[in-house]
Amino acid sequence: MIKVLCLHLAPHRPSYRYRIGQFLPHWKEYGIQIDSMCVSGKKSLNNVMSALSICSNYDYVWIQRKVFPPLFTWLLSRKSRLIFDFDDAIYVKQVMLTGKELPESRMKLNWIASTLKRSALIFAGSEALKSYAEQYNRKVHLVPTAFSTPLLVNGNGHNGKSVTIGWIGIASNLYFLKIIDHALRSVQQKHPGIRFSIMSKRLPEGVRTEWELSEWSSENEKKWLADIDIGIMPLTDDEWCRGKCAFKLIQYMAYGKPVVASDVGANKAAINNGVNGFLVISDDEWIEALQRLIVDKELRASMGAASRRLHVEQYDRERVQQQIAGLINEDYRCIAFDGAAR
Questions:
Q1: For the chain, what are the domain ranges?
Q2: CATH topology (fold) of 2-146+317-341
Q3: Which of 23, 133, 8, 3 lies closest to 80 in space, CA to CA?
Q4: 98-107, 193-202, 271-280, 291-300, range with the lowest pLDDT
Q5: Same fold for the domain at 2-146+317-341 and the one at 164-314?
Q6: Which whole number is the average pLDDT over 76-86?
Q7: Quick one: how far is CA 121 from the chain centroid?
Q8: Thinking of the domain 164-314, which architecture would CATH place it in?
Q9: Three-class HEC string of the chain
C-alpha cells in the first residue's frame, strides 16, 4: 500500500472537494492510502509542524494548492517525495479582485518556484498551468478537475414551457457575468419567456439582466444542474482565466447540457465547437449562440448528449482517479527499481 499525506487549505473549498475529497473513499481500490490534513486557519502552524514530524511515515506528501516557504518545502522533500497539485494560476493575482492583470509578489513567486522544483510529480489542472510548471520541472501532468457522472436524468428538468440558462459559481466569480450583461439582456428582451438562473450565494450587482437566485448546497446543486437547459461560462482573456480549469462546463456537461463559453483557456478543451456547445468571443456571438439553442430543442438535445459523452471520456471521477493512481504507481515503481538497482 502506497501511503500519501495530503496537505490542503480547507475542506470546504471547491479545489479540495473535487481534486481531493471526492477521491478519498476509492483509493484503496488502487493500492493507495491517503490521509488529509488542513494546513490553514487558526491551527495552521501547529498542523504544519505536525505534518513535518510525521511526513517520513509516508511515501508521498501531496500538497494541494498551498505553497510554503522554501526551507519548509526542502525539509518536507528530504523526508518524503512531494506531489504538487494546483488548479488556478496562483502565480498571478485574481483578476476579479484587482480588475487588471498583476503578478503575485516576488516572495510568493519564489515559494511557488521552490515547490515546483522539489516536486516528484506535479498535477496541473489546465494546459496553461502545465506550461507554467514546466519552466521548473519536467514531471508535470495535465490532470483535469473531475466530477462524478450522475445517473441519466430523463429529458431536461425544466417544466417544458420555458428554457433556463444557468450559471454556477462562487460569489467572487459573479464578476464575469458583468462582461456579458449587454448580450444576456438583449437575449432576455428578445425571448421574454426564458429564465436566467444563478446557483450561488447571491445575485450579481450592477447588471440589467434579470436573474433568479438558487442558493448553493450540495443537494440543491444536483437538482439545479438537472433543471437548467443551457450552461454558460464567460471569462476575460487574461492569465488568471487562461489558467482556469473549465469546471463549470464540466458540471454542466456531466448532466448532459449544451454549453456556451468564452473562447479562453481550458474552455477550448471542454467544448468541441458546434458539437457540444459554442465557443464565443463578442457580444454578437454570445447572442447568436444562445438564440440558436433557445429556439432549437433538437439542437439542445443533440449537443447535450455530446456533452455527456465528452464528460465521461475526459472528466468523470473514476477516469481521472485512474489517471492519478497510474502516475503515482508508476513513479513509485521507478523509485523502488532504482533502490533495488543500487
A1: 2-146+317-341, 164-314
A2: Rossmann fold (3.40.50)
A3: 3
A4: 98-107
A5: yes
A6: 97
A7: 19
A8: 3-Layer(aba) Sandwich (3.40)
A9: CEEEEEEECCCCCHHHHHHCHHHHHHHHHHCEEEEEEECCCCCHHHHHHHHHHHHHHCCEEEEECCCCCHHHHHHHHHHCEEEEEECCCCCECCHHHHCCCCECCHHHHHHHHHHHHHCCEEEECCHHHHHHHCCCCCCEEECCCCCCCCCCCCCCCCCCCCCEEEEECCHHHHHHHHCCHHHHHHHHHHCCCCEEEEEECCCCCCCCCCCEEEECCHHHHHHHHHHCCEEEECCCCCHHHHCCCCHHHHHHHHCCCCEEEECCCCHHHHCCECCCEEEECCHHHHHHHHHHHHHCHHHHHHHHHHHHHHHHHHCCHHHHHHHHHHHHHHHHHHHHHHHHHC
Residue 234 C-alpha cell reads as: 464567460
Q: Would you mind telling me the total number of residues written for the chain in this entry?
A: 342
The pLDDT tens digits for 151-209 are: 875 544 444 568 999 999 999 999 999 999 999 999 999 999 999 999 999 999 999 99
Per-residue pLDDT reduced to its tens digit, 109-154: 999 999 999 999 999 999 999 999 999 999 999 999 999 999 875 5
CB atoms within 10 A of CB 14: 13
Indicate whether this model's pTM tops 0.90: yes
- Report which residue type is found at 186: S
